[in-house]
TrEMBL record:
InterPro entries cross-referenced by the UniProt entry: Papain-like_cys_pep_sf, Peptidase_C19_UCH, Ub_carboxyl-term_hydrolase, USP, USP_CS, Znf_RING/FYVE/PHD, Znf_UBP
GO terms, molecular function: cysteine-type deubiquitinase activity; zinc ion binding
Coiled-coil stretches: none
Any single Pfam family the record assigns to this protein: zf-UBP
Protein name: Ubiquitin carboxyl-terminal hydrolase
Leader sequence segment: none
Localization in the cell: Nucleus
GO biological process, one term: protein deubiquitination
Gene Ontology CC, one term: nucleus
Catalytic activities: Thiol-dependent hydrolysis of ester, thioester, amide, peptide and isopeptide bonds formed by the C-terminal Gly of ubiquitin (a 76-residue protein attached to proteins as an intracellular targeting signal)
Gene3D superfamilies documented for this protein: Cysteine proteinases, Zinc/RING finger domain, C3HC4 (zinc finger)
Length: 504
């Protein structure tokens, strides 16, 4: 797609204006009224072959709908009638048959944004969401999506490669993971983002992510070129600007942060919890990490709870401070599985004499122990295996194979399951009366891998399309793989989705 404007379209607008585009967008793209939606359902078929097409285009000069691709009747119409412009009715993009490409026009883009806003207001999508409540977020999300999208077996919808724009594989693999996150997909495909930057929507990363989801689930199989997304990343996260290879984990956190900031102005803060945002990013990715610091003199426990988007797990030697009873816990053994990483992450840590903390009870500086546990689990749990070590003049990658499961139970690492004896319990997960599994159970749905060294390498991603359908995404290449290939991979970022909110 050209982003520089089109002289042919400028000439067209000077003589024919923008009226035809406004009508098409209002009645057949944004559908700003109930009547418009009914009209679209009845009228959106190719006038030549009478087939309903996912890529139906409308002539901008006359009343003609034609299929794009396949028989390509819209192109035949343009050649015969010399009508050089067509509008893609799935997302409002304009195709110029003289430039032979989709073209960008600021005036048309503003018309499209205004029409979409009017459409959301007409069906009530611009209403303020209910305040975010950590205890009932899963229930609220399920109520928002009572008819959840079902990706049928052998379906290829949503599978689309991404062109590498020069060492941008780190971005491509994160985009693949995000576009296959079910609740995030529902949010963007429902066009629920009400942008507050109407005259500058090109600067809004959430608007671009919405466009990206529409591209992924449009049914088009040709690789997509995410140049607009890359430009916005450079604009809003300048430390990632340039064509050098970047860290995929760093990009994930930067992307979530920018999306959160752009959504925050739209959704605001929870009335019941003014320190927590109720935007879609926080609803899906934010969990609560509890830190308990215990005074060794009086056993007083000081507790703090901090939000997190991901959990970073060490693979190398433990910190200089010793764990309690290292002989019992095998503290110096290198973890070989995700479970052993999590057990190590949640074990009590002796802070030592060099890190004494003033106890709020005995009012003196004492040695203490610190233990981390999960106070609240997010809908999507992302685990970052710290494979890269960086120190002055020294870079190292830890390529040790770390086993990770298809299904994960986090019950043992919850604050409610904490044991004073060993830092974690062996609590058995029970089935509820209606047959649902524990609310702390997760299923793997995406894995980001890195091959190479700490200084150079290449990122790839595995994504789950259906419960038993896995695919490998390597930039523009999408290939089907077996689950065993996923579980045998090195693993750098692991994405798990709560089973209680899983889509069939």
């Amino acid at each position: 797609m050209t982003h520089q404007g089109c002289k042919h379209l400028r000439e067209f607008k000077s003589t024919d204006g923008t009226g035809s585009y406004r009508i098409l967008v209002s009645y057949f793209v944004a559908c700003s009224s109930t009547e418009a939606r009914k009209r679209k359902a009845k009228s959106c078929i190719c006038h030549s072959c009478r087939v309903i097409s996912a890529r139906l285009h409308s002539c901008l000069s006359c009343v003609y709908f034609g299929c794009y691709g396949g028989n390509d009747h819209i192109k035949q119409h343009a050649t015969t009638k010399r009508h050089n412009f067509a509008v893609d009715l799935s997302h409002g993009a304009v195709f110029c048959f003289l430039c032979k490409d989709y073209i960008y026009d600021a005036e048309f883009d503003e018309i499209l944004a205004m029409s979409r806003k009017a459409s959301k207001q007409s069906i009530g999508l611009d209403k303020t969401c209910q305040p975010w409540e950590p205890s009932c977020i899963e229930k609220e999300l399920m109520q928002l999506h009572p008819k959840r999208r079902k990706v049928t077996e052998y379906s290829t919808i949503g599978l689309r490669g991404l062109i590498n724009l020069g060492n941008t594989c780190f971005m491509n693999c994160i985009v693949q993971a995000l576009t296959h996150t079910p609740l995030l997909r529902d949010f963007f495909l429902a066009d629920k983002h009400n942008c507050l930057m109407l005259n500058e929507s090109q600067r809004c990363l959430v608007c671009e992510m919405s466009r990206l989801f529409q591209e992924f689930y449009s049914g088009v199989r040709t690789p997509h070129t995410p140049y607009r997304l890359l430009h916005l990343v450079w604009t809003h996260a300048r430390h990632l600007a340039g064509y050098e290879q970047q860290d995929a984990h760093e990009f994930l956190i930067a992307a979530l942060d920018v999306l959160h900031r752009h959504c925050k102005g739209n959704n605001g803060l929870s009335k019941s919890n003014p320190h927590h945002c109720n935007c879609i990013i926080d609803q899906i990715f934010t969990g609560g990490l509890q830190s308990d610091v215990t005074c060794q003199k009086c056993n007083n426990v000081s507790t703090t709870i901090d939000p997190f988007w991901d959990i970073s797990l060490d693979l190398g030697p433990p910190p200089n401070s010793l764990l309690l009873n290292p002989a019992l816990y095998g503290a110096f053994e290198q973890p070989t599985s995700l479970m052993s990483c999590l057990k190590r992450f949640t074990r009590p840590e002796h802070l030592g004499s060099s890190a004494k903390i003033k106890c709020s009870k005995c009012h003196s500086y004492q040695e203490s122990t610190k233990q981390l546990t999960m106070k609240k689990l997010p809908v999507v749990a992302c685990f970052h295996l710290k494979r890269f070590e960086h120190s002055t003049g020294y870079h190292k990658k830890i390529s040790t194979y770390v086993e990770f499961p298809e299904e994960l139970d986090m019950t043992a690492f919850m604050s409610s399951s904490r044991s004073n004896n060993n830092g974690y319990s062996n609590q058995v997960v029970h089935l509820t009366a209606n047959g649902l599994t524990s609310q702390h159970k997760y299923s793997l749905y995406a894995v980001v891998n890195h091959r190479g060294t700490a200084d150079t390498g290449h990122y790839t991603c595995f994504i789950r399309q259906h419960k038993n359908q896995w695919f490998k995404c390597e930039d523009h290449l999408i290939t089907k793989v077996d689950l065993k290939d996923v579980l045998r991979s090195e693993g750098y970022l692991l994405f798990y989705h709560k089973q209680i909110l899983e889509y069939e």
